[in-house]
Amino acid sequence: MSGKRDEGRKPKSAAEDEGGSIPIDPELEAALREAMKSVGESETKRPAPARTAPEPGLLDAEPVPEGEAEAVASRLREELAGTEDRLLRLQAEFENFRKRALRERQEAAQYGSQNLFKDLVSVVDNLERAIAHARESGGGDLASFLQGVELVQRELLAIFEKNHVTEVEALGRPFDPSLHEAMAQVESGGVSPNTVIEVLQKGFQLRDRLVRPARVILAKAADGSGRNGGGDSAG
To answer: Angle of helix 114-136 relative to helix 142-162, nearest 10 degrees?
Structure first.
């Protein structure tokens, strides 16, 4: 029985008898060594990562000599003193400007009409002369008195024009509630309704600002169908 079993087994190789190791092919071993050598050379030739040089900072600066540092500090103190002096001067100039502007504004509010009243003084003088002349003549010389009053009127209107005061145009114009104040309406043939047919009191403007509206009488249609700008009479 044992002889038959031994006959069925395969005979072991010499390599297996020596310890079970498999012999390496010399050509394969040479190829492996060549590959390992190539890998080592490539690792050796790979460049090392570049190191960034630190930027120069304050700590890297060379120390300033003591004498030079004192000179720099002295110069900076002088510049600071000069800047403070200029600042104080500017502050004083601004304060003077503010006070002067305030004083001029107050004077304009108090004496802004000085030139106007200076012109009106001559009008008062002429009016007093006309009145005095009428009294001396006992009221008989009405023509001279009228001429004196007309002179005063022309002088006043000239002063108004000089100061940009103009008369509101009203007579013969359509009623304008922003410029006119209707006191009454009267039937008037041949005139469009709401047309100013009479001025009771003149109106005046200072530049584009209304000082006083013109008080007027308006025309209305005979059948009373005209629009009433201010009623049949003053309210």
So the answer is: 180
- The CATH superfamily holding the domain 167-220 is Head domain of nucleotide exchange factor GrpE (2.30.22.10)
29 vs 94, higher pLDDT: 94
Of all helices (H) and strands (E), which one includes residue 182?
strand 180-187
User: Residue 193: CB partners within 8 Å, gap ≥ 6?
Assistant: 218, 219, 220, 221, 225, 226, 227
Return the amino acid letter for 5.
R
Domain spans in the chain, listed from the N-terminal domain onward: 114-162, 167-220
Distance CA(147)–CA(153), nearest Å, equals 10
Cα-Cα-Cα-Cα dihedral sign, residues 140, 146, 149, 155? negative
Query: What average pLDDT does the chain have?
Result: 77
* Order of all β-strands in the sheet with 196-201: 180-187, 214-220, 196-201
Separation of alpha carbons 216 and 211, rounded Å:
16
> Does residue 151 contact residue 203 with C-beta atoms inside 8 Å?
no
Per-residue confidence (pLDDT) for residue 44, from 0 to 100: 58
Given a cut of 80, is residue 202 above it in pLDDT?
yes
CB 128 within 8 A of CB 121: no
Q: How far apart are CA 205 and CA 166, in angstroms?
A: 5
